[in-house]
Amino acid sequence: MLNPEIQFNPKIFTKEIEKISPRDGFGEGLVLAGEMDKRVVALSADVTESVRMHLFKSRFPERFFQLGIAEQNMIGIASGLAATNKIPVVGSYAAFSPGRNWEQIRTTVCYNKQKVILIGSHSGLNAGPDGATHQALEDIGLMRVLPNMSVIIPADSLEARKAILAAVKYPDSIYIRLPREKSPVFTTEQSVFEIGKSQVLWLPEKEEQFSGITIFVCGYLVYAALEAAKELESEGILITVINNSSIKPLDTELVLKWAQKSKAIITLEEHQIATGMGSAIAEFLSETHPLPIKFMGVKDQFGESGQAEELIEKYGLDKKAIKRTVKELLRNL
Amino acid sequence: MKLSQKEIEKISVQIREEVIKMILKAGSGHCAGPLGAVELYTSLYLSGILKHDPQNPDWEDRDRVVVSNGHYAPLVYAILAEAGYFSKEKLKTLRKLGSQLQGHTYRLSLPGIETSSGPVGEGLSQAVGMALGAKLDEKKYQVYCFMGDGEQDCGNTWEAIMAANKYQLDNLTAIIDRNNIQIDGFTEKVMPLEPLKEKYESFGWKVLEVDGHNISEIIKAFQASKSIFVKPVVIIAHTIPGKGIDFMQWEYEWHGRVPDSHQAEMALQQLRNLKGKIKSELD
């Protein structure tokens, strides 16, 4: 059942649920952040509207910097602005930032310990028709290996809005990973979003009915995991679904608690299996509570052109694949 | 600190001695570049041009100095110690385990260091960010960025050059140590940079060229750079790598080579023979 402690959109699981891209939530949140704190400045590399920074640009033109297609320079400038007590928010497609400017992030932001907020949009297969070059599938790994860098992945547009506001108040640099595609807004204004905290969204009503499978999922795929959980419930299979939006810092207390309750876990992400969210969870659990883990993600491949839903299905990350994986896992336990 | 030209010349020789001793003790590090750039640093830090307070390194209105070529660390440390940021005793610890004097400059380990550097080609971007920050805050401080000529190969450098022009950063002064060497050889063989002056000018910068061992010329260029409006300024300082030590001068092999104790002794002897006076090519 849906976790009764969380305020969900009452339209969840209906066709009427609003679909909005998390980029839009971020763009609105950035304006609010700019109003809240005048140190907030925004930097863009020629994809201002795509990353939804145009709202900030028109509201605070003097605090917006258009730097052209020059992501390495954008990071260095952000570091320099941070050195003068600004809070720079740097936006681009994840394939280019952190894809193209990783060393600048490593040296001038992380090693320098200058707080910069990085927005990586168009991450994952859902970036769709643009094809493999624009579908970042490595960015979680690229960012979570860096000291002084946190990584969060909002699950819908409201979480994205809350994420940027939380990031502005957070003491360290943070990478916020966003999809391109619209997705159902299943949370509400009232739902809690906190950096370092993940949320149990779906769980068995009675613990003795628990099948022993917990899915840790992030970002664009969270809603599909919830739909899969609902359909599995009607087949008598009761699982748990955790929105693991905080990859670094990992909500170790919650991860350990549900690993201990589970016979096996599934990790699900629109990212290479290597170095992704699942790897972060596996690194932690292998030392604290080893158990079987099924990693659902991209298997050392590049993406390709197609509609978001077609790609998610082809690469085996859709609702059907999730249900199939749960059942296979249960058979083999 | 405001010293006379004569005093700066004398200290410039002493700093060369410090650099040789530091690198000898560390057993690794870069020789030729730092030895060739001494006058650029002493002229800025010791002549009274740089607005700074070693007792209050985080002073909000201080001028910012970004060192983009972090392998000049021995020179940076020697000059910061000379200026009073920390005790000269610390210089002996360069590159040792637990030392505040990391092999390449590290912002968090020592006062007076604005940015960590090591990978070249990204200091100018950070300097541009600081200059933009100063403009947003309506602060009057100047941002200085020391660069090598090798890092003019980097695309990132030219991205920053364009951005400085776009935002008309007249509070930014870049200094290029034009010593013509990089690790693999002479810059014009590795990747031709000339005509460097015209390149910068076509990117909207004001270019000043100086003899990088002539202290009065360097000081004049720094003064001029502050009075040029609308445009960022680059000072191309023509220097001799390894300056002051005959067997190191012009030898690109000394970019990252360490003298053995005999070579170091010869080098120190040569520096002592200069009697506190580095001769510029024009003398």
Describe the structure.
The complex is a heterodimer of chains A (333) and B (283). With 333 residues, chain A is of the alpha/beta class. Chain A folds into 2 domains: 166 residues, Thiamin diphosphate (ThDP)-binding fold, Pyr/PP domains (Rossmann fold), CATH 3.40.50.970; 134 residues, Rossmann fold. Helices cover 36% and strands 21% of the residues of chain A. In chain A, helix 2 links the parallel strand 2 and strand 3. The mean pLDDT of chain A is 98. Chain B contains 10 helices and 7 strands. In chain B, the strands form 2 sheets. A 5-stranded parallel beta sheet of chain B has the order 1-2-3-7-6, sandwiched between helices. Chain B has a single domain, classed as 3-Layer(aba) Sandwich (Rossmann fold), CATH 3.40.50.970. The longest helix of chain B is centred in the first third of the chain and has 22 residues. In chain B, a hairpin with a 2-residue loop joins strand 4 and strand 5. Chains A and B meet through helix 3 and helix 4 of A and helix 5 and helix 6 of B.
| Greatest contact between two chains | A-B, 29 and 33 residues
Strand portion of chain A, in percent?
15-25%
The order of strands across the largest sheet of chain B is 1-2-3-7-6
The DSSP helix count of chain A reads: 11
Mean pLDDT over all positions of chain A: 98
Query: What's the count of strands of chain A?
Result: 14
- Named at the architecture level, the CATH assignment of the largest domain in chain A is 3-Layer(aba) Sandwich
Helix/strand order of chain A, N-terminal first: EHEHEHEHEHEHEEEEHEEHEHEHH
CATH topology of chain B: Rossmann fold
Structural class of chain A: alpha/beta
